[in-house]
């Protein structure tokens, strides 16, 4: 009996040791999981670091969403290389026709209509002699909803531009005033170098090159832009302390409507 009791006590002690080891492993795994959760929630994690990375113009969305998404953004970002190359090639052909060959817009439209009407007229009359079906000319109608949507979008943008110009002219924001004046001055210089068509073509080419390059090298560009903005803010602070702050300004009183 004594030997049997000793064997039972040995078995119980072994079982106790095994259960203690299992509990210790469970507690260590739970503590490691909690540590991992805390690390993932800590501000030094990569996800939180990415959210704090400087982006140009405070961009928080992808470049595709910034460009409006849809087919225009796909064309600008070369999602379909054939379509993007075709659009850019067509714009280049138009620029060559009007700028280099000095073809006029009205002449091009009239010649294109003459050619199209002549081909369709001859095809329609010749189909009766050669026993073939005449060309099916579709009926073209401009939908009213699309025109109203475009007009409404233009109206919103124009009203917003007028409100910005009004705020600038009222003298409330000196920084915005100087920025707009500098931008218009640069635009006037560029306009003196080339005509409107060439300027439009340059902007069109930039829209097909700059966004796709920025999407590819956005980290490097954002880092460089951050350094440039810091330097610009420093220079503006020096200009403000030495020049702008010494400009006398009258008190601005907002008129309250009764």
Automatic annotation (TrEMBL):
<protein>
    <recommendedName>
        <fullName>Reticulon-like protein</fullName>
    </recommendedName>
</protein>
<dbReference type="GO" id="GO:0005789">
    <property type="term" value="C:endoplasmic reticulum membrane"/>
</dbReference>
<dbReference type="InterPro" id="IPR045064">
    <property type="entry name" value="Reticulon-like"/>
</dbReference>
<keyword id="KW-0256">Endoplasmic reticulum</keyword>
<feature type="transmembrane region" description="Helical">
    <location>
        <begin position="104"/>
        <end position="123"/>
    </location>
</feature>
<feature type="transmembrane region" description="Helical">
    <location>
        <begin position="83"/>
        <end position="98"/>
    </location>
</feature>
<keyword id="KW-1133">Transmembrane helix</keyword>
<dbReference type="GO" id="GO:0009617">
    <property type="term" value="P:response to bacterium"/>
</dbReference>
<keyword id="KW-0472">Membrane</keyword>
<feature type="transmembrane region" description="Helical">
    <location>
        <begin position="177"/>
        <end position="207"/>
    </location>
</feature>
<feature type="domain" description="Reticulon">
    <location>
        <begin position="72"/>
        <end position="258"/>
    </location>
</feature>
<keyword id="KW-0812">Transmembrane</keyword>
<feature type="region of interest" description="Disordered">
    <location>
        <begin position="20"/>
        <end position="49"/>
    </location>
</feature>
<dbReference type="InterPro" id="IPR003388">
    <property type="entry name" value="Reticulon"/>
</dbReference>
<dbReference type="Pfam" id="PF02453">
    <property type="entry name" value="Reticulon"/>
</dbReference>
